[in-house]
C-alpha cells in the first residue's frame, strides 16, 4: 500500500520506523502527523529512504521504486526534501508529484500494487511534501526499463545475475529442489531407501502405482527428464532424501555440530562432527549429538526424584528439523551449524525468511505455513517423527522451554536464520563454585540491567572500588564477561 514508512541509518529512526510507522501502515486510512515525518527525515537517506527536491521524470522515479520493491523491507520516497542536509524545501505543485509517482508505478513491470491508497500530501512548517511508500517484496521480481533494480545502501543499482537467481529461488519462482543434478545418475538413488519410504506411505494408505524404477522416480519428482538430452536424472530433492551419498553432489547439505568448552567459543572445541547422509539420517545424528551433551539434574518433589534436563531435547530437535527442511539449499558453501556452548545452543540455518514472512510473524507465532522447499517438506511429513507439528513448531519449542522454566527461545534473522536456546545459567555449576558471592551478584546484576560499571558493582556488593575492579577483571580474563571502554567509565557486559 501507499502511505509512509521508512528505515534510516540512524538507529533511533530505525526503531521508530519499526515500532510506529511500519506496524501502523497495515491499517487503512493511516494518518501520519508532522512529528512522524520529522523523525523519518532526520534519519537521512538510506536503503529504505530517499529524498527528492521535486519529482523527476517518471522513468527515474520508477527505477527508485523498483529497487525498493525488490527489497525485503520496501521503502519510502519523500518529495520536497533535499538529499544534502535533509532540508525540507517543499513542493510548489504537490499534485504534479503525485501524478508523476502514479505514472512511475504503472511503468514498472508488473505494475506496483495499490491497496486502496495513493501517494499522499503532507504539510510541514507550511511546506507541502508528497510521501510514497513502496511495500516490502512479496516474492515478485520487478523491473523497470528492462532492468531489475535493487537498493544497495542509498543507491539504486542493477541486480547482478546471482542476485536475480537468488531472488527467484527464495521466492519459489524457481524451485531448487526440482532442479536436475547434472553429475548424478539414477544409480545414485538408493532403492532400499525409496522402498522403505514407500512402505511408510502404503501404511498410511497413500497409493502410488508405477511400472518401472524410472517411472517411479519421475512420479515422485525425485527424477526429471533433461530437456536437452532426454536422459532421466535425479533431482536435488531426490538426492537429499534417497541419495547414496547426498553430500558428494550437494556438499552444502551436511550439518556441522560443534561442542564448545566455554560460552564464547574462543577455547578449543570439545567435539566437532560433520554430519552426512540423507536428510532424515542427518536429523537423527544431530539429535544424538545434542543428547550427548544435555546435562540432566534432579529435583525431589513429594519424596520423588524428577529428572530435569538442561534443555528439552525435542525442542532442539524441532529447531534442527525446521532448519533442514526450510533452509535455502541454493546457497552453495553454506551449511547448517549447531553450536553447543556452556550456556546456550544455537541452530544456524542459511537463507532468510520467505518473502511475505517477517521475523515479527515468526516471533508472534502468526507466520503462515509456507515452506520454501515444498517437495522436501512433503517427503518429511510422510515419514513419522519429523514434521508432525506443521504450523505449530514455534509454539512447541516455546512451550517445551517454559515447561522446564527456561527462557523462551530467541529467533533472529541476520543474513541467515538463527534459533537460540539458553539454559538459564549465567555460568556452569563448576565455574560458579570458583566465583565469590560478590561476583555471582555482579553477574546477576549484569543480566538484569544489560551492563554495569565498577561503581555499580561496588554499590551492589559492598566491595571497595579497588576490589570491584579486581573481581570484574577476573571475570573478563576468564571470558565470563566482556568490557567496553577504559578505566572507571568502562562498562561490563555478558558476551
Notes on the protein architecture:
- The chain is of the alpha+beta class.
- The protein folds into four domains: 11-159, 2-Layer Sandwich (Methyltransferase, Cobalt-precorrin-4 Transmethylase, Domain 2), CATH 3.30.950; 177-242, no CATH class; 253-422, 2-Layer Sandwich (Heat Shock Protein 90), CATH 3.30.565; 429-493, Orthogonal Bundle (Arc Repressor Mutant, subunit A).
- The chain is built from 18 helices and 18 strands.
- It is flat and about 75 Å long.
- The two termini are 41 Å apart.
- Residues 1-31 have low confidence and may be disordered.
In CATH's first tier, which class of the largest domain applies? Alpha Beta
Shape: flat
How many domains? The number is 4
Instruction: Write out the strand line-up for the largest beta sheet, numbering strands in chain order.
Output: 10-9-13-14-16-15
Oligomer: single chain
Largest sheet: 6 strands, mixed
Number of helices: 18
User: How many β-strands, per DSSP?
Assistant: 18
N-to-C terminal Cα separation, in Å? 41 Å
Task: Write down the overall mean pLDDT.
Answer: 81
Supply the helix-strand structural class. Answer: alpha+beta
Low-confidence stretches: 1-31
CATH architecture of the largest domain: 2-Layer Sandwich
CATH topology of the largest domain: Heat Shock Protein 90
**Rg on CA atoms, Å:** 27 Å
- The level of helicity is 25-40%
| Portion in beta strands | 15-25%
